[in-house]
Amino acid sequence: MIRDMTNTAEHGEEKSARQRLRERRAAAYRTAERVLSRDGARGTLRDRLALLHEAAPQVHDLDEPADLYGDGVVAALEERVAGLLGTEAAAFFPTGTMAQQVALRCWAGRTGNPTVALHALSHPEVWERGAFSAVSELRTVRLTREPRLPTAEEVRAFEEPFGALMLELPLRDAGYVLPSWEELTEVVEAARERDAVVHFDGARLWETTHHFGRPLREIADLADSVYVSFYKSLDGFGGAALAGPKTLVEEARTWRHRYGGAVFQQFPTALAALVGLERELPRLPDYVVHARVVAAALREGFAAAGVPWARVHPEVPHTHEFQVWLPYEADVLSEAAVLQAERTKEMLFAGAWSRGGPGLSYTEVTVSAAGLTWTADDVRGAVVDFAGRVAEVVSR
Asked: Where would I find the Aromatic amino acid beta-eliminating lyase/threonine aldolase domain in this sequence (predicted)?
C-alpha cells in the first residue's frame, strides 16, 4: 500500500511538472515577439472580439437581422463555400466530426454499404473515439498504415467491399502529406471502379492548391462530397461545412438537426469564417512557399549546430505545415523551446513536442503570416540557439 501511494505521489508530481511546463509555454508564446505562426485561437477574448469588430463589416452587412437556425449570415457562408468548391450546395455544421458522420451516414443509405475505407492515421480513427461506429452505425476498414495516402493499387486490391472511400487531404498525422495530382486521380478512379463514393476529409483542403497546382473547384470536383473546416487554415472561431450534391446536402441538414447541430444562433462563428475566407485563404499559397524556405533553413541549421540527427518531414513540405523530428525526449525539447522564448523573445517551436519512440520526439511547425518575416538566416540562427538550449537542458 505504501509503495502504491509513493508511485501515485510521484505520478502526481510528474503531471504537475508537465502542467507547469505547458503553462510556461503558453505564457512564452503570448509574450514572444517573433513566432512562425500567430494562432488566433491562443489569443484573449478581447483579441477575438476585436477581430470581429474590425473585420466583420468588410465581409457582411451587419445591419441585417441576426441568424436564426441557419439563415442569414450562415446561409451566406454556405453559398460562399459552395461557390468556392464548385458544388451544388453546402451546409454549415458546428463541428467537422458531426459533418463527416452525417455525410458518410447519408452515403451509406444510398450505397447500401455502411463500410468506410480510410487510412489508419485518419482523423476519425485517431481522434474521434470510435464515433463512426459508436454513433453513426458505420464500420471502418483501414487500407494502409503507411505514412502516405492510400494508393490506387491498395484500393483495387482491398479484400472486401466498401461503400465509401474517405481521403484526408492533407493527412495530418503522417506529416501533412499529400499525394501527387496524378496519384490522387488514380485513387479516385480505383474507388469508382469498385462502385464506391469518394468523400474528402478536407479540413485543411484550403492549403492544397499550391501542391496540386489546381484551383479548389477542380480538386473538390474529384470527390462526391467534401468537408472543410473554418478554423483549421482559416483561423476562424470554429465550424465546418459539408459540400456536395443538393440532394445529399438537404438530407444532411435533416441529420444535422437529429444530431443536435441545429444551433439557435451562430453569427460570430459564421462571420469569423467569412473573414478567414477573405483574408487567409488568398495568402495560403504564400505560406506554403515560405514554409519550404523555413524547412530548408531548419535542416541547414541543425546540421550547422552539430545535432547528431534531425529530420524535417516532408523534406519539402506539401502545405504550410510539417513535422520536425529530433533525437531527444519530448520534455527536454519542450523545456528548450520555452527557454529560448523566455530569454530571446523568439519562439522557434511553439507547438507541443510528442514522443515518437525511445529518445525520439517530434513537433508540428506551421508557417503563416507571422512567419513571413523570418529569413532563412533568421531561422538558421534560431536553430543554433535552440540547439544550445537543448544542450543546456541535457546537462542539468
From this structure: 70-299
